[in-house]
From TrEMBL:
The keyword Protein transport does not apply. ATP-binding (A) component of a common energy-coupling factor (ECF) ABC-transporter complex. Belongs to the ABC transporter superfamily. Energy-coupling factor EcfA family. Its EC number is 7.-.-.-. It is a peripheral membrane protein. Keywords: ATP-binding, Cell membrane, Membrane, Nucleotide-binding, Translocase, Transport. It comes from Leuconostoc aquikimchii. It is found in: Cell membrane. This is Energy-coupling factor transporter ATP-binding protein EcfA2.
């Protein structure tokens, strides 16, 4: 399912004296079956933006189109049920998303809500919990007894269990250990291989280069770039400073080399590429 934002503006508390204008003329395209990463400094509007994809927030003006569904400020709550079945969001703070007495019940909730029988919902929940790496001995515990990383996985399973066509993940790596982070990136690629449209918000540029087909950069509520990782991470280093964004590790190393007089023909995205460039472009005495 493709997603299009057309001149979306959004204010929290629109129409009140406390109205705070957050998104400004956001226009972008997230194509079907691709991974779009959204990056930008804290407070730039990433979480606000993605909550428009399933109508949790509605544009103050402009429109969001998800497949054939058009979302505007006039869209009614009951029209959103179908959309929410197709768009799964795993939120930035998983503890706000969990609510049931046990992990298994929590993950069964969405499939049950969307019309599955109890047996079907249980199968879907068990399958999804296995897929995101939640050990069986945790399934009957309260989700609130779990560690941050496990909570994150359960919240993710709760979103995936209803098999959405669009999967939005808001900083899913937060709270995961390095192994968990690698597994998460594998999950993103697996979802992509199943033809799903994936949207990943991340502060970790190495994650972005590992999975993203395109990157959207937000700055003060505006989209300031939408392009491939190759193009983005070859922009001027000063631009990254201004956007308060990091470069991937390989790019940071290449910048350090440059400061020491060693120039490469392009800025590498991953360490293997850096090693290759050093090998072919830096003379060995
Ligand atoms: N419910 C709310 N009511 C009022 N203002 C809000 C609300 N949620 C967020 N904001 C404000 O909107 C702006 C954008 O916040 P948002 O959470 O979308 O940023 P973000 O890019 O996701 O940041 P982070 O990287 O820290 O998660 C911030 O100034 C924030 O204070
Ligand atoms: Mg956020």
């Amino acid at each position: 399912m493709a997603i299009t934002f057309e001149k979306v503006n959004f204010s929290y508390g629109a129409g009140t004296v406390l109205a705070q204008s957050i998104l400004h003329d956001v226009t972008l395209e997230m194509p079907t079956g691709l991974v779009t990463a959204i990056v930008g400094q804290t407070g730039s509007g990433k979480s606000t933006l993605i909550q428009h994809i399933n109508g949790l927030l509605k544009p103050t003006s402009g429109r969001v189109i998800v497949d054939h569904f058009e979302l505007t400020k006039h869209t009614k709550e009951k029209e959103l049920v179908k959309l929410r079945q197709k768009v799964g969001i795993s939120f930035q703070f998983p503890e706000n998303q969990l609510f049931a007495n046990t992990v298994l019940e929590d993950v069964m909730y969405a499939p049950l809500n969307f019309g599955a029988t109890k047996a079907e919902a249980k199968l879907a929940a068990e399958d999804t919990l296995r897929r995101v790496g939640v050990a069986v001995d945790l399934w009957h515990k309260s989700p609130f007894e779990l560690s941050g990383g496990q909570m994150r996985r359960v919240a993710m399973a709760g979103t995936l269990a209803s098999n959405p066509s669009v999967m939005v993940m808001d900083e899913p790596a937060a709270g995961l250990d390095p192994k968990g982070q690698t597994e998460l990136l594998q999950l993103v690629l697996e979802l992509k291989s199943l033809g799903k449209t994936v949207i990943l918000i991340s502060h970790q540029m190495d994650h972005v280069v590992a999975v993203a087909d395109q990157v959207v950069v937000m700055h003060e509520g505006r989209v300031v770039a939408q392009e491939t990782p190759e193009k983005l991470f070859n922009r001027d280093a000063a631009w990254f400073k201004k956007m308060k964004l990091d470069l991937p590790k390989a790019g940071q190393l290449a910048e350090k080399m440059k400061a020491n007089g060693i120039h490469l023909s392009r800025r590498p995205l991953i360490l293997n590429e850096l090693a290759r460039l050093i090998n072919t472009e830096v003379s060995h005495e």
